[in-house]
Amino acid sequence: MPWTYLFLAGVLEVGWAIGLKYTDGFTRPLPTILTVLSMVASVGLLGLALRDLPLGTAYAVWTGIGTVGAVTLGMVLFGDPATVARIACIGLILIGIAGLKLTS
Question: Which spans are transmembrane here (predicted)?
């Protein structure tokens, strides 16, 4: 169950990272509320995962999921550059996440 909590926390981290873009500097009420709720839920689920997982592993996986998701959605939704180097770096992060999962 802790890995499920951690995965969901990571997905919610992607949600709040993308949500920040839509808040327009926290000037738009609905996106701001949804972003803050996503932040709270993400950290809450991370806390639940930390009951059973090592801190370094859980934090690295949480931020890794958030990073991969935010970069990928940035490319898809906002036209961020999708260069070979960026995609290769995403692959390296995914390898790191998998490695941490396999060794924990």
Answer: 33-50, 57-78, 84-103
- What is the number of other CB atoms lying within 10 angstroms of the CB of residue 47? 12
Instruction: Name, in order, each residue with C-beta under 8 angstroms of 29's C-beta and a sequence gap of 6 or more.
Output: none
Sign for the pseudo-dihedral over CA of 32, 35, 37, 43? negative
Q: What is the pLDDT of residues 32-67, one digit of tens each?
A: 999 999 999 999 999 999 999 999 999 999 999 999
Q: Which of 67, 13, 7 is nearest to 37 (CA)?
A: 13
Place of tokens 């992607």: 14
**Whether pTM exceeds 0.85:** yes
